Amino acid sequence: MRIGLFGGTFDPPHIGHLLSAQDALERLQLDRLLVIPAAQQPLKGAEQTTAAHRLAMVRACFDGIPGVEVDPVEITRGGLSFMVDTVEDVRRRWPKADLHLLIGSDVVPTLPRWKEPERLLGMVRLVVLYRDTDGTLPPEPEIHGGVRARALASRRVDVSSTEVRARVREGRSVRGFVTESVATYIESTGLYLQNSRIPDRADP
How far apart are CA 14 and CA 8, in angstroms? Predict the structure, then answer.
């Protein structure tokens, strides 16, 4: 069995996340893709939207997509979310599965700051998503510690979670940036209207 792991803060999940998931499912020929919202991302500030809201939005975003399963393992575990712990949990559930960890190319430089990156990379096949590409990709980019990853072209979508939150605060529509179900959830709950935080960089 081939299982993909797609983690993130998803604050909120947007159309780019959805398309990346669909691309990974098809091009990696995955049997299932686990979308894993973090309880608290350790490399971001503490002022993140509550896990319950983010989980609800991720479920709304990916509901009904064949092969995609929203896995609340990190939220259930609580505290800071470390992918090495999540991979161990997935490995216990599917001991014979071939695990593929998806990360964006912009996240690769942060790998040395992850918890036990060498052990993590020893348990998964790393797949790096390149969104800004002219069609040429490194065949097997060298990642942390000389580990070779698979490069996967993912269509470019110029939208970020940061922009979505900003549009909500400014009273502008986010339809088309997120799925209709996520837009409805944001509107019905009043999310981001009271949240004035502006991250240092755009969320992937």
Answer: 12
Which of 33-47, 64-78, 150-164, 189-203 bottoms out in mean pLDDT, i.e. has the lowest? 189-203
- pTM score: 0.90
- Residue 11 has which token pair? 């604050």
Contact 44, 7 (CB under 8 A): no
- Whether 53 contacts 39, CB under 8 Å: no
Contact (Cβ atoms closer than 8 angstroms) between residue 53 and residue 173: no
